[in-house]
């Protein structure tokens, strides 16, 4: 029995590894081809406003230096083999190793995304539960209305609103960046960092709750309409006890699925929020890399984001097994 | 899925840049009341800081130089290189003066340049700067494959400790600009991490660089000229919209802002509109259609090849109206690509907004409206052509629309087309394009007007050719000093009978020079700002060492 379980876990892991490997390969190839067939001329993008002073001879030198004068397949091959050896290449616009740039920026983005994710998850879930338990009361309508408005609110707009109210007019928070202006790294306190994180994280959380709240509300309403809840009510259960015994576990699974699936949206939202708040995360780097045709950097970011989303889904899978005994049995059968 | 959303987001950001500024402007207006009620304590804060006689500045004047602070890969070519110093520099009147150099000599044939350098200069780490460092700098730049273009240099040698000899492939008097723009890096302290850890002989030294956020610099005690008044300067890397927000929040001393925000007052800050050669103009195809460029693109346009059409347009455009209407008054009329620079010929200025004069020129050349449809014809050819502009540039779009409207009563029909640069690249040899140039290097004029450069990338897209002008160019490049060269640059524009300006062949219709706008702390004196080149932001730091508080 034990051996049996081990084997099935092994097969499960192997499947996952194969899946991520094929996914990454496909994503890399497609994005590489897409970037290469995009109308952005990497040399022009690199030269930018300096086109005044850069002659054709120098353009050739630039192309040669970065290897963009070779056929596309050859470029992909040399990039791919370097990746397998663990080398993500050198960014054209930063002239530094891609891994270094992603490394330093990912930390910033990660703290932003995790904060926003946790808050939007918890607040959204609680809001959804309250709305469903108090169905058709004023509080339900309030939450519903709020969520509908948010669902149609662009992240960058919400960011601007917060920026103008809390940073420009009230001056409670800094207008951007991740550290205080003009302060040496040694003197930057944890509170300084948190203060710079609050507005972008709030932007993401405020926009993020709508989805979770509405789904949770709907699911809990389905549960409340079920016969077992009717039976429980008949026995006199109500309010929090009813929710705790019969609601929570049943709606946890879809909520978790949704929350982890939101990893991808989180990534996109973070890019927009970072733009508004000049926050030095992956967002800025992604925008620059995309608009200026910096292939190594953009591909590095694509791989990272794919892994990020994949890991999010994997965690969701694993949590199902912990939460739901039916899934555990389903696997070992 | 993930991947798609990434691209969607990128696209969204690209599109929303414009919406972003608009949205910000709207919100700013809505919230001005709120701002008024809270701005009081901000002003008190500012006063306190001045009474403290702080020797510290916070500037939001430009994007981050992502490649770092290595002059051999392009750092410091706009604005002050801060950490490094250059062989020569330009003074407030843009004349060349010595910096590291103590003098220079150019051989008769213009190919050998011998530069003597000062013997009392030290890098910020205390090591003396010698000719070997100069040689090393230029040799490194040649092999770096970056935006620094030194292909005219054949050889650089340090002939003794304080003398450098440059041998050029061909005479080029404008080579002096390479010596003005390039900061000297230390041979002994140059490595892979130099861009993030620059050591130089400039007025400042790097204290901290938070990538993607800010740069903190302090005065360099080893600097050979007077130490700057401000001992510590912080540059924060914000886009124009965010810089404006920072100025409103009272968090910066200087902010670069877009023209759309110029009407909004910010407490304790004044608006400085700096004159520029950041110009916009229409490049006309100069030759008749039929030819094909070396890259296989169609060349020439029958309508704009007629000198009368180009002259009439130049004469009819109301440049003052463009400045007032499109730029909110923050600009100057443009007559050449080099207005106000030492090599500009003031005689190129001509009267404009003259519809009658323009009509006369057209009538004399045989253009008539025979079928009464409002557009002139000549020998079956309609006076009609397309004008391309980059669709994401609001200013160029407004200029294009306004100019097209101005030409309607004249009977010239300009069809405006907003496209991406990638499309424009394919159309620019056979259609008019709204271009922008502007540099402190006269070589740009050569690039834009010389027949040698016809159809080379964005240079001379109209295939303009005038042998007299080409001869002047050659003489200017072969000149052995700047003064002599400038005389020929001026003659190329207008020598009394021909030239590349609107008085001569009019291969372009220059429209406006766009002022660069900065919000500056009321008490801060940013010195005499020189005429800024193309590119908003860093050039304001050119004279950072002269900045001080007003008494």
Features:
heterodimer, A: 333 residues, mainly alpha, 14 helices, 77% helix, B: 551 residues, alpha+beta, seven-stranded mixed sheet, 13 helices
Instruction: Give the termini separation of chain B.
Output: 61 Å
Q: Which class best fits the helix and strand makeup of chain B?
A: alpha+beta
Radius of gyration of chain A, taken over Cα atoms and rounded to an integer in Å: 24 Å
Number of strands of chain A: 0
How large a portion of the residues of chain B is in β-strands, by DSSP E?
15-25%
Q: How would you describe the oligomerization state of the chains in this entry?
A: heterodimer
For the biggest sheet of chain B, the summary is: 7 strands, mixed
**What's the number of helices of chain B?**
13
How would you describe what is shown here?
The complex is a heterodimer of chains A (333) and B (551). Chain A is 77% helix and 0% strand. Chain A has 14 helices and no strands. Chain A has helices at residues 2-37, 42-47, 56-66, 72-84, 98-133, 138-151, 155-169, 190-224, 227-234, 239-261, 263-276, 282-291, 295-323, 325-332. The radius of gyration of chain A is 24 Å and the shape is globular. Chain B is of the alpha+beta class. Chain B contains 13 helices and 25 strands. In chain B, strands 8-9-10-1-11-23-12 form a 7-stranded mixed β-sheet. In chain B, strands 16-22-13-21-19-20 form a 6-stranded mixed β-sheet. In chain B, a hairpin with a 2-residue loop joins strand 6 and strand 7. Chains A and B meet through helix 1, helix 2, helix 3, helix 5 and helix 7 of A and helix 1, helix 2, strand 8, strand 10 and helix 5 of B.
Topology (elements, then pairings):
The complex is a heterodimer of chains A (333) and B (551).
Chain A: H1 2-37, H2 42-47, H3 56-66, H4 72-84, H5 98-133, H6 138-151, H7 155-169, H8 190-224, H9 227-234, H10 239-261, H11 263-276, H12 282-291, H13 295-323, H14 325-332
Helix pairs in contact in A: 1-13, 5-6, 5-8, 5-10, 5-11, 5-13, 6-8, 7-8, 7-11, 8-10, 8-11, 10-13, 11-12, 12-13, 13-14
Chain B: H1 2-30, H2 32-51, E1 56-60, E2 88-90, E3 96-98, E4 101-106, E5 112-117, H3 131-143, E6 153-160, E7 163-168, H4 176-181, E8 204-210, E9 214-219, E10 232-236, H5 240-248, E11 254-257, E12 269-274, E13 279-283, E14 291-292, E15 298-299, H6 307-316, H7 319-326, E16 331-333, H8 355-364, E17 377-378, E18 381-382, E19 384-390, H9 394-407, E20 413-419, H10 421-427, E21 432-437, H11 443-449, H12 467-478, H13 482-493, E22 508-514, E23 516-521, E24 524-525, E25 548-549
Parallel strand pairs in B: 1-10, 1-11, 19-20, 19-21
Antiparallel strand pairs in B: 2-3, 4-5, 5-7, 6-7, 8-9, 9-10, 11-23, 12-23, 13-21, 13-22, 14-15, 16-22, 17-18, 24-25
């Amino acid at each position: 029995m034990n051996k049996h379980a081990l084997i099935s876990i092994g097969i499960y892991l192997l499947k996952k590894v194969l899946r991520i490997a094929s996914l990454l390969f496909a994503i890399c190839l497609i994005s590489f081809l897409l970037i290469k067939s995009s109308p952005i001329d990497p040399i022009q993008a690199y030269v930018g406003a300096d086109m005044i002073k850069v002659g054709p001879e120098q353009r050739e030198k630039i192309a040669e230096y970065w290897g963009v004068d070779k056929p596309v397949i050859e470029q992909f091959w040399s990039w791919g083999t370097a990746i397998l050896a663990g080398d993500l290449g050198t960014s054209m616009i930063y002239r530094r190793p891609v891994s270094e740039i992603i490394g330093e920026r990912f930390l910033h983005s990660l703290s932003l995304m995790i904060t926003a994710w946790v808050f939007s998850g918890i607040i959204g879930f609680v809001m959804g539960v309250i709305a469903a338990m108090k169905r058709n009361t004023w509080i339900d309508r309030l939450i519903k209305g709020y969520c509908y408005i948010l669902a149609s609110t662009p992240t960058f707009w919400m960011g601007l609103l917060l920026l103008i109210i809390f940073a420009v007019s009230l001056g409670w928070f800094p207008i951007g960046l991740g550290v205080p202006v003009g302060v040496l790294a040694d003197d930057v306190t944890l509170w300084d960092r948190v203060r710079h994180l609050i507005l972008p994280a709030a932007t993401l959380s405020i926009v993020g709750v709508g989805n979770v709240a509405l789904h949770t509300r709907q699911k809990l309403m389905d549960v409340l309409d079920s016969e077992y809840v009717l039976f429980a009510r008949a026995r006199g259960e109500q309010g929090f006890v009813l929710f705790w015994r019969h609601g929570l576990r049943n709606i946890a699974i879809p909520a978790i699925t949704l929350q982890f699936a939101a990893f991808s949206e989180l990534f996109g939202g973070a890019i927009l929020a970072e733009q508004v708040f000049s926050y030095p995360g992956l967002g800025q780097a992604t925008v620059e890399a995309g608009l200026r045709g910096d292939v190594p950097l953009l591909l590095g970011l694509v791989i990272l984001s794919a892994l990020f989303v994949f890991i999010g889904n994997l965690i969701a899978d694993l949590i199902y097994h912990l939460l739901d005994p039916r899934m555990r049995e389903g696997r070992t059968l | 899925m993930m991947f798609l959303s990434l691209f969607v987001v990128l696209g969204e950001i690209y599109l929303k840049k414009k919406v972003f500024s608009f949205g910000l402007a709207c919100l700013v207006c809505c919230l001005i009341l709120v701002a008024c009620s809270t701005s009081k304590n901000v002003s008190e804060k500012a006063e306190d800081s001045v009474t403290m006689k702080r020797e510290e500045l916070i500037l939001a004047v430009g994007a981050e130089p992502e490649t770092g602070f290595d002059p051999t890969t392009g750092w410091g070519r706009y604005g002050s290189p801060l950490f490094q110093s250059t062989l020569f520099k330009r003074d407030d009147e843009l004349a060349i003066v010595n910096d590291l150099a103590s003098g220079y000599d150019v051989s008769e044939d213009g190919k050998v340049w011998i530069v003597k350098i000062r013997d009392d200069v030290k890098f910020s780490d205390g090591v003396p700067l010698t000719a070997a460092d100069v040689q090393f700098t230029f040799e490194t730049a040649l092999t770096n494959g970056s935006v620094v273009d030194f292909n005219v240099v054949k050889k650089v040698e340090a002939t003794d400790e304080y003398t450098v000899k440059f041998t050029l492939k061909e005479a080029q008097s404008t080579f002096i600009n390479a010596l003005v723009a390039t900061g000297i890096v230390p041979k002994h302290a140059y490595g892979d991490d130099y861009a993030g850890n620059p050591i130089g002989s400039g007025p400042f030294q790097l204290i901290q660089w938070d990538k993607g956020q800010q740069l903190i610099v302090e005065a360099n005690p080893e600097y050979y000229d007077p130490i700057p008044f401000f001992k510590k300067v912080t540059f924060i890397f914000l886009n124009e919209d965010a810089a404006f927000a920072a100025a409103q929040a009272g968090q910066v001393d200087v902010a670069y802002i877009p023209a759309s925000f110029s009407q909004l007052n910010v407490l304790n800050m004044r608006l400085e509109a700096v004159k520029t050669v950041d110009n916009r103009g229409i490049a006309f195809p100069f030759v008749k259609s039929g030819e094909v460029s070396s890259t296989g693109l169609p060349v020439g346009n029958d309508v704009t090849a007629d000198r009368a059409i180009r002259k009439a347009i130049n004469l009819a455009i109301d440049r003052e109206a463009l400045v007032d209407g499109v730029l909110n008054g923050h600009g100057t009329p443009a007559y050449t690509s080099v207005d106000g620079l030492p090599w500009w010929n003031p005689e190129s200025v001509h009267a404009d907004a003259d519809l009658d004069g323009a009509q006369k020129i057209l009538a004399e050349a045989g253009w008539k409206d025979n079928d009464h449809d409002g557009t002139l014809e000549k020998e079956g050819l309609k006076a009609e052509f397309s004008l391309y502009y980059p669709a994401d540039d609001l200013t160029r779009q407004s200029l294009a629309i306004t100019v097209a409207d101005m030409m309607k009563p004249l009977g010239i029909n300009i069809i405006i087309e907003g496209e991406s640069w990638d499309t424009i690249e394919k159309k620019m040899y056979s259609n008019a394009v709204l271009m922008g140039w502007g540099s402190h290097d006269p070589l740009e004029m050569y690039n834009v007007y010389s027949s040698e450069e016809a159809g080379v990338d964005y240079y001379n897209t109209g295939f303009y050719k005038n042998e007299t002008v080409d001869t002047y160019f050659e003489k200017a490049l072969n000149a052995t000093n700047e003064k002599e060269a400038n005389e020929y640059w001026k003659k190329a524009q207008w020598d009394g009978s021909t030239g590349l300006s609107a008085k001569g062949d009019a291969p372009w219709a220059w429209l406006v020079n766009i002022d660069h706008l900065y919000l500056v702390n009321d008490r801060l004196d940013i010195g005499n700002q020189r005429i800024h080149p193309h590119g908003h932001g860093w050039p304001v730091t050119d004279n950072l060492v002269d900045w001080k508080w007003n008494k």
